[in-house]
Write a structure and sequence with these properties.
Length: 314
């Protein structure tokens, strides 16, 4: 007979780990399902300066490691599995993964979001061959080379600054004539001698035979296109894309209400389905940060406990 958990949390980013900590600390039998390693987007971030209390060793991996340790110490179970299908309509919810089938009284969806691609010719073919979405993961591969960062928000500028540790030159390509990042981050970038800017520009095509060797850039005001070619001695350059994220919610289509792929909830993280909650970046919200994700996770777990006590306890 399949074991029935009190709460199953799908996703082990900050929202899922926070939910796991709160649920297991409340003595709920808790399972966290993650398809890869825990941490979500934050694990790829080199420096986390805006999470309260995270001062020493304030990297994404170190912060994630502490979250995992806390959830584990309170008894949350964690497994690696890819969820393929969910049945959320019944009183006991069923989660079908590649490896196993799981059942729970309540489900917390914390699947987060994935990097948004530019969607241009050559991008998919050259991903991992010069095109990247993770500076922490791939920055060292571009030591002493030139790299280009596409985007102008906090993530793009922060990662551009990080990449200067490796690359000899970093150029930020932004579709407008000013950055969207907060002023304190902008100031750091403008002061960095290794960082240059390509304003009012978008990348239209990426080219290369096995490795990125050139790209076509278009001026958003004039429409003029220019081909940027790798330095002859280098033979290649890097393109790091930070233009936002897409919600990782495909398996929940038709199972819960959605708005442009994101899951709407009330203030208690409740979806339109009884016993199903959502937390973190997959949820409809205005601010997607680690601190808001952990808050969502805590609220979702507390409300899941209340739901279970009301529906299942005599």
């Amino acid at each position: 007979m399949t074991e029935i958990y009190d709460v199953i949390i799908i996703g082990a980013g900050p929202a899922g780990l926070s939910a796991g900590l709160y649920a297991s600390r409340s003595r709920l039998k808790t399972l966290i399902i993650e398809k890869e390693k825990p941490g979500g987007q934050i694990v790829t971030t080199n420096e986390v300066e805006n999470y309260p209390g995270s001062i020493e060793n304030s990297s994404g991996p170190s912060l994630t490691a502490r979250m995992v340790q806390q959830a584990d110490e309170f008894g949350a179970e964690r497994i690696i599995d890819t969820v393929l299908e969910v049945n959320l309509d019944d009183k006991i919810k069923t989660i079908k993964g590649e490896k196993n089938e799981y059942k729970a009284k309540a489900v917390i969806i914390a699947t987060g979001a994935v990097p948004r691609p530019i969607g241009i010719p050559g991008e998919k073919e050259l991903t991992g061959k010069g095109v990247s979405y993770c500076a922490t993961c791939d920055g060292a591969f571009f030591t002493d080379l030139e790299v280009y960062v596409v985007g102008g928000g906090d993530a793009a500028v922060e990662e551009a600054i990080f990449l200067t540790k490796f690359a000899r030159k970093v150029t930020i390509i932004h579709r407008r004539d000013e950055l969207r990042a907060v002023k304190s981050i902008q100031e750091k970038a403008f002061k960095n001698e290794k960082i240059d800017f390509m304003w009012d520009s978008v990348v239209k095509e990426i080219k290369g035979d096995g490795l990125v060797s050139s790209m076509v850039v278009e001026n958003t005001k004039t429409g003029e296109q220019t081909e940027v070619v790798a330095d002859e001695d280098d033979g290649m350059f890097g393109i790091f894309v930070f233009i936002g994220y897409l919600p990782a919610t495909e398996i929940f289509e038709g199972k819960v209400n959605m708005e442009n792929g994101y899951i709407p909830t009330d203030a208690e993280m409740r979806t339109n389905v009884d016993g199903v909650f959502a937390a973190g970046d997959c949820r409809v919200k205005t601010v997607r940060q680690v601190v808001t994700a952990t808050g969502d996770g805590a609220i979702a777990a507390i409300q899941a406990e209340k739901y279970i006590s009301e529906v299942f306890d005599d």
